[in-house]
Amino acid sequence: MYQPGHLHLEHLPVQRKDVAYSLHIRYEVQHSEHGRAVHFSVLGDIAGKPVDEHFELPRELAFNFASHVDHVARQNGLPPTQVVPLSLHKQYDEMFEDIRRQLEIKPGEGLSAERLDKL
Fold first, then answer.
1. Of 3, 70, 74, 83, which is least packed with CB atoms within 10 Å of its CB?
2. Which InterPro entries does the annotation name (predicted)?
3. Cα separation of 78 and 29, whole Å?
């Protein structure tokens, strides 16, 4: 379920090797020392164990959030045979678009190599 600033993903095991998870991914555009950034929190549980992780991505890297969420899930017990299907959800597109709008990034806008080097 998605609403601006929040995506909830839930999975109930289908096969014996699957693990259940319920993750609330919240995000907010903030100003940091490097300019605009998106602060993310991933809260919930994986295989019954609590997850409470936070990370921040600068404007130039904010669209790589799905990779970071996957990394958080792996660190918190999601097995390599299972995925958090964030990019397969319609809600991912809505979240991506909301972040793009809040960061005022235009489609096709280039990234500054200088800024990337400083991050």
1. 3
2. DUF5064
3. 27
Cα→Cα distances 92→53, 85, 108, Å: 19, 9, 19
Residues 6 or more apart in contact with residue 77 via CB below 8 angstroms: 19, 46, 47, 49
For the chain, the domains span 2-118
What pLDDT is attached to residue 85? 66
Residue 51, class by beta-carbon neighbours within 10 Å (0-12 exposed, 13-18 middle, 19+ buried)?
A: buried
What is the value of pTM for the model shown? Answer: 0.84
Question: Domain 2-118 - what CATH class?
Answer: alpha beta
> What is the pLDDT averaged over residues 58-68?
89
- Residue 16 is which amino acid? R
H or E, element range at 100: helix 90-103
